[in-house]
Amino acid sequence: MRTPLRARGFVAFAIISFTSTAARAQDMPGMTMPAAPLGIAMERQGSGTTWTPDAIVLPSKHFAAGEWSMMVHGFGFLQQIKQGGDRGAEQFGSLNWAMLMATRDVSGGRFQLRTMLSVDPATIKRAGYPLLLQSGERYRGQPIVDRQHPHDAFMEVAAMYERAVGERIGLSAYVAAAGEPALGAVAFMHRQSGMDNLFAPLGHHWQDATHITFGTATLGVFGKKWKLEASAFNGREPDDQRWNIDLGALDSYSGRVTLNPTANWSMTAGYGYLHEPEAAHPGESARRVVASILYGRALTGGGQLAASAVLGTNWHGGDEASNSLLLEAQTNMGDANTWLARAEWAQKSPAELGVVTGDVDHHGSGVKAISAGYIRELGARAGMTLGIGAIGTVNFVPESLRAAYGSRMPLGGGVFLRLRPTGAPRDAHAGHPMPH
């Protein structure tokens, strides 16, 4: 079915409008942020209801609109990707997303509306961009392999309310037509340790794939350094119709605990039951466990260092567990240079990668990849910065996949331009005036 031009035009217009707003917005003198329940700054928030370390910030712009405090956050890439080997491909396109958050005081608490949009379905092929050893979701009834699927146009349409009910306890509620249940780590586009990395992690469908869920409700209780949450959500993965919202029954559940013991650390552990997540496997449900450790600290000159370790485990039907592990780091050196690195391992079977072998179909030692990249800022204007960058990846496949990939170490990489907001004031705490 063809997507109505009206829907595509609306999403594209919204993203352009958000980017334009970010470019024009200025941090207003004397602007006061909404109340901070238990003194927790809004800048601690990650994707969905996750937390990040207090010592680091997202690149974003803040401004006022009447009683509302507004935040614009997003990235736009213009990239040329080349993946080598017998299963490689090349593509020119644009990965992009923009987020708008509107926050105000309501009944003694903090109320927030969110929307996050992307035109990925129009700017990269509908089957996604080339990425060796990646897998997950389907296109035209066939599994997507060696490509990363595009994001849906509506990545988040949600509301959240947080309020202190004492000096040490607060309550929160989050509802979303498109959003994220309390299960995985901070989604990779929002993690300060990897947000400038062009490529999605190979373990995405073990670690944070539920960051686009069409129907979720989450309740939480929190203190200044901890949070407990429970969610009911639609367990079905998004289909290949990327321009709509596919609401479904809240047939799955999850729980997560988060600890922020100091300003430099944030740790999570979550468990979830996903009811029939894949349309191609009716009757087969999944269980998922995700744990993460995030570290961050400010550097002299306005830069910051962020690092993450994420472990994800899946059980599909009666299968044995399969695991994934990610280690990544990103250093922003003031206004000039960004260095990034990632190492990952995922237990993907040959069948999951579309390879038929004579071996017993098991996950075995899995696949591995190491990537590194660099971005040089070309200049900043009106609160936006433009950088030029490159990233390269060395993949490692087991002997059983050598014939399919043409090598035990197929290579991949890309060059790109990246546009994003310059940053947010590091002392922009809720309830405190923001400097000009």
Topology:
Layout: H1 5-24, E1 31-32, E2 60-65, E3 68-83, E4 90-93, E5 96-106, E6 109-117, H2 120-123, E7 129-139, E8 142-148, E9 154-164, E10 170-178, H3 204-207, E11 216-222, E12 226-233, E13 252-259, E14 265-274, E15 286-298, E16 304-316, E17 322-333, E18 337-346, E19 367-381, E20 384-396, H4 402-405, E21 411-421, E22 433-434
Antiparallel strand pairs: 1-22, 2-3, 3-4, 3-5, 3-21, 5-6, 6-9, 7-8, 9-10, 10-11, 11-12, 12-13, 13-14, 14-15, 15-16, 16-17, 17-18, 18-19, 19-20, 20-21
Please describe what this structure looks like.
By secondary structure, the protein is mainly β. It has one domain (5-434): Porin. Helices cover 7% and strands 48% of the residues. The chain contains 4 helices and 22 strands. A 16-stranded antiparallel β-barrel has the order 3-5-6-9-10-11-12-13-14-15-16-17-18-19-20-21. Strands 1-22 form a two-stranded antiparallel sheet. Mean pLDDT is 88; it is low at 1-7, 9-30 and 425-436.
Helix content: under 10%
CATH superfamily: Porin
Total number of beta strands: 22
**What is the architecture at the second tier of CATH?**
Beta Barrel
Computed Rg:
21 Å
Strand content: over 45%
CATH topology: Porin
Number of helices: 4
CATH class: Mainly Beta
pLDDT < 50 runs, ≥5 residues: 1-7, 9-30, 425-436
Q: Number of folding domains?
A: 1
Whole-number average pLDDT? 88
Please list the strands of the largest sheet in the order they lie side by side: 3-5-6-9-10-11-12-13-14-15-16-17-18-19-20-21
Order of helices and strands: HEEEEEEHEEEEHEEEEEEEEEEHEE
The secondary structure category is mainly beta
For the sheet with most strands, the description reads:
16 strands, antiparallel, barrel
Choose one word for the global shape.
globular
Alpha-carbon distance between the two ends: 49 Å
